[in-house]
Amino acid sequence: GNEVFTYDYVRSIHAVANGFADAAAVEGPLYDWLISRGDPDAARTRIVDRSPPFGNPPVAVHPALDRQVRRRLREFFLTLQDDERGRELLAGIMVERFVEPDAGLYAPVQQMAETLERP
Question: Is the pTM here over 0.90, yes or no?
Answer without folding.
Answer: no
